[in-house]
Amino acid sequence: MPETFEGRYRSLLENMMSGYAYHEVVFDEKGKPVDYIFLEVNKAFERLTGLKRANVIGKKVTEVLPGIEKDAADWIGVYGMVAITGNPIRFENYSEKLKKWYNVYAYSPKKGYFATTFEDISVRKELETCLFTSETKYRRLYETNRDGIVQTDRTGCIVECNKAYSDMLGYSKEELLDLTYQQLTPEKWRQMENEIVNQSWEKADYSPVYEKEFVRKDGTVFSASVRVLVVSDENGKPLEMWSIVRDITRRKQAEEAVTTEKNVLKGIMENTGANLAYLDPEFNFVSVNSAYAKGSGRSAEKLTGKNHFELFPNEENHAVFEQVRDTGKTVTFYDKTFYFPDQPGRGATYWDWTLAPVKDEKGNVQGLVLSLIETTRRKELEQELLEILEESQHRESEISSLLKASKAVLYNQEFQPIAQVIFDTCKELIGATAGYVALLSENEEENNVLFLDAGTLPCTVDPKLPMPVRGLRGETYKTGKVAYHNDFKHSKWTKLMPKGHVKLRNVLFAPLSIDNKTVGIIGLANKPGRFTKRDANMALAFGEIASIALMNSRILEALEENEKRLEEYAEHLEDLVEEEANKLKDAERLAAIGETAGMVGHDIRNPLQTITSSVYLAKEEVKLLSDHAKREELTESLDTIEEQVVYINKIVSDLQDFVKPLNPKIEEVDLRNLVKDAFLSIAIPENVKVLILIEEDLPQLVVDRYLIKRVLINLITNAVQAMPGGGTLTVNATYESGMALISIEDTGLGIPEENRNKIFKPLFTTKSKGQGFGLSVCKRLVEAHDAGSITFKSKVGKGTKFTIKVPTKARRPDGWKQTE
Amino acid sequence: MEANRIILIVDDDKSILRTFTRILQKHGYEIDTAETGKEAIEKADKKNYDLALVDIRLPDMDGTELLAKMKKQLQNTIKIMITGFPSIESGVKALDEGADAYLVKPVKPEELLMLIKEKLKNKN
Q: Tell me, what CATH number does B42's domain have?
């Protein structure tokens, strides 16, 4: 070799990074290499081996590194073979002497000599050892892993797989090596997987874990999670692809189970009637069901993470929560009141609630389950029911009170005791403590108290003091409506109360009405609390019942009155019957009279005619007598006979008049003329004084002139005859309500008591002459006129006064009796 | 005094017939009497009377009935009815049958004489 070349070569050897040494092998006599001698070394040699050039050149290796001959690497033998055979060798070996791994290249440039170049690979070897260790470990993992591990090429052909993978898929490893992963993947997953794989390949990186399905050999499908791992070379170029496949069927099943369980729980949570909330130990909401959210008036999202007591501050409940958390014991409440501080409009709400701890395995409280059932509606219903119950009880007591009052009306007749029962019942029902019942006085000005209940308060007012109809009670009298005032002492009526009156806090007046007129009142006062509209209605009802009682009692009074009158009438009836019987007797008698009247006319008047004629003849004879005294005497006798004939004839005339039907001819007649005419027909004795007193403006009579004239003649004749010893005869006429009252009064004998009720009867005669038919005819004639009547007053020894009443022109025309 | 005036008195009461006859004869009248209606009719058939004094009630008939029956015979005779039981009906009936007067018993003789005198005077 030329110098220059050698020089350059040396320089290269000297400066190269690898160690370089040149050796001569030492053989034993049998030609077996037993040692070698260092001929040359470079700087790297010194650095890599730690041996100094000066210490090794020319020296045997056994000298430099004593014991090397026993090194397991058999350095001397290996290098000897290279020097002998000339075959280069590359190996890695551990030098126990130098405690280093070397990558060695040995070659022989000349028989018996060898050169080595080497690198210290201890670090790499160390790593390789570790790698080996981990690789072993990983291989074991790889083989025993429950996850399938598979290596594929870029196209998807399976290159390598572990047992788990083949187990998972049900293929043998050999079978798998003929397949691609795509063939093991159901169509629907391929697109997705392809994208993931491509991305990973391009990035030469891990893929995210993704889930897919695989088809087993038997055609069944299972879920798996997969992660693709792309291995690249030093330059980042992707080389191979590994996939870790995990059968997640169980996880899926577990997940499904959990999901199902969750759904079940959720279903339970959502569908239970309860409001459920799960809170952490700090009472923050972890989750709530929708019922809870709704019940709290918030969305579930707004509740989650919030603190219960920040949202619903309540010291009492806070203490309860702490107690449950700290003791781990469940607490339950029923119908607990809660006011939402942020929702005052909701008022009181009621809740059944249970707060239960959720504990971990060690019994530590992990959270709290709050279960609420709002019972507000139930509570309200209960309250309503209670109110309805109270209402119906109140109704019942109202009805039974009204019934009691009504019974009182049915079983009693007198007003006062009924009123007392009604008042007491009404007072008790309404709850008043004082009051009275009063009736309107007849003049309608006073409120006459029937009875008064002052209650327990003192009342010193004189009960006899009048109670005028005024004030609030006056309102009731006026309107017929219930009036009440709950602050009476401040009302305008207070000043009307007399001194000593019971203090009135409140008052109520209900009317007692008959025919829509208020005729009395029930007064109530001093109810603890207030009189209500309902009280007013009830008081009105009691007032109505009392009104019925009052009406009943008044009707009863009227009935009793009528009964009494009827009794009187019945008694009177006997008289009346007697009278009628008498009348009947009279009528019979009259019939007899009528029947005989004709006969009487002849049978008496014929003799009367004979007498009259005879007296005439006798008088003619007497005139011829010369004896004056005799003549006088006979004439007197004949005159007397004539007089008696006239009287008898009068009786006959009266009798005939009495049975004759009357047909008065009504006309307007002047009483003065009539009286004058009457007096013309009567001889008034000198000892009788006549007074005629007729009212100036007396209207014309409306009578039958002849009938009334006969009546007057009759009465005047009677009067004159009643005063045989003389006296005063007074004719008086006055006007009264369309009628003329004409009286004929004498100062004569008077009519004895026992005869007074007989004097108008026909054929009644007193022993003194002048009665006979007279008065009964007078009665008949007067009564033949419209509303005509005849009456008399008499005192024995003082005289008699007959009064006839006959119609005048001033009487109402429709009262006239127009007859032929 | 009027001569030859003939008066028929019809009455069932003999006393009345006797007294009236005496009174009227005294005053110059010629008197016939009848006690029944039948008798009166017989008498009137035989003789013309200037005046008849007839009681309304007769035993065999009513005086007014008699008037009706003797209408022809008593055509020119003054007819005076006399009754003890006056009534408007009988009075009206009498006048309807042609009676010239209607008197009620007891009649005063003076009045009767005056009436007869007047009626006879008017007749002539």
A: 3.40.50.2300
